[in-house]
């Protein structure tokens, strides 16, 4: 058994993470004789509720602001904490001011009552906890204090780092909650992180720094959700937009040095419409877009949890970084897949560069493909197609996706199929050079025109100059021998 410890930090990450864990629970089998194809112990720990009932809980630390938790219970495995639990420790007079409790969602109410659970509509979702189906260990929810209404810390790198320092000092996070999950593991294989850069970028950087102080060689994969401010379409009259984009650049620079593999995502607000969404009626809903991201994150990491799989975070990371020390990966995919190889050619969408224009001649260090629910003919077509494009690609075939009851009802067919197919591919590629190049230009412009933004973020001018130079070095490293700058131009055209 090779356990993974999971970290989720931020609202977007927890929307994606809730779908991720609901999908994990569909692998549990309850009929005698059924043999699951996933090793549950990789991601779940076994325990007991306060009533002595056996339960499985994710090996997870979940960070967010208190107001974003919704009706998620504070007690053991989701049971509500007693109202008098804290007051019983105080003998003095009490003037109690209690805010009304957040009512449970329709989905949660049906789960608790044992009624038939129907699929959620986007309009019914207020918080990521509204559609959560799993039980959490008491150490999993990590509630950070809310910020005042007049404060806007989004995109503020230094305040985000300071939040980690204060929270770690007040809760002894690393020595208590994190170490609890580590010490339960027999043979930990690594850390999987999802984080929002705009609100938890500096926080995650500080967490990973503390992690690396003790676990210098343990692999970590970070799925990082960038803000909706990108350099090529930046509103230069809005300091907040500049701040968020510069914060993204700082996050990419920091993660490149701390995480074994980092997979950035552009905001779903910036997604292109096109053939890759031909089967889905996608609304402007984080609940819906998070399910698509989660499907691909869950699919590409599935080999780490499959029974009898030889794949680990260590060997897959090595396979992806065969050409130098390239730690930034591109995640692309298509979902759902029809029985047509053209779906693989025309509907593969790069969620890292936010484009469906995947040019084949780019230099590629490594490639991992994971397919879900492919028929035998499609498996052969996929193997031939991929073999002609990426020599030496790792291809993992796995069963179809069984969507949980919480899955969005966004299919144009009008119903959610009982099983779904998907293809997800993770690559390290020269196309990443354009990503670093755009942020390097932003950092350079900040040193010349936006000194007030740098000051507002609590940064020194030398910090931003160093960031600019580091990003240019990374741009050159990822571009390699490729002299064609079409990728960079293409990124600008796509984003505009």
UniProtKB/TrEMBL annotation:
<dbReference type="InterPro" id="IPR029209">
    <property type="entry name" value="DML1/Misato_tubulin"/>
</dbReference>
<dbReference type="InterPro" id="IPR049942">
    <property type="entry name" value="DML1/Misato"/>
</dbReference>
<dbReference type="Pfam" id="PF14881">
    <property type="entry name" value="Tubulin_3"/>
</dbReference>
<comment type="function">
    <text>Involved in the partitioning of the mitochondrial organelle and mitochondrial DNA (mtDNA) inheritance.</text>
</comment>
<dbReference type="Pfam" id="PF10644">
    <property type="entry name" value="Misat_Tub_SegII"/>
</dbReference>
<feature type="compositionally biased region" description="Acidic residues">
    <location>
        <begin position="483"/>
        <end position="496"/>
    </location>
</feature>
<protein>
    <submittedName>
        <fullName>Tubulin nucleotide-binding domain-like protein</fullName>
    </submittedName>
</protein>
<feature type="region of interest" description="Disordered">
    <location>
        <begin position="475"/>
        <end position="496"/>
    </location>
</feature>
<comment type="similarity">
    <text>Belongs to the misato family.</text>
</comment>
<dbReference type="GO" id="GO:0005739">
    <property type="term" value="C:mitochondrion"/>
</dbReference>
<keyword id="KW-0496">Mitochondrion</keyword>
<feature type="domain" description="DML1/Misato tubulin">
    <location>
        <begin position="121"/>
        <end position="306"/>
    </location>
</feature>
<feature type="domain" description="Misato Segment II tubulin-like">
    <location>
        <begin position="2"/>
        <end position="112"/>
    </location>
</feature>
<dbReference type="GO" id="GO:0007005">
    <property type="term" value="P:mitochondrion organization"/>
</dbReference>
<dbReference type="InterPro" id="IPR036525">
    <property type="entry name" value="Tubulin/FtsZ_GTPase_sf"/>
</dbReference>
<dbReference type="InterPro" id="IPR019605">
    <property type="entry name" value="Misato_II_tubulin-like"/>
</dbReference>
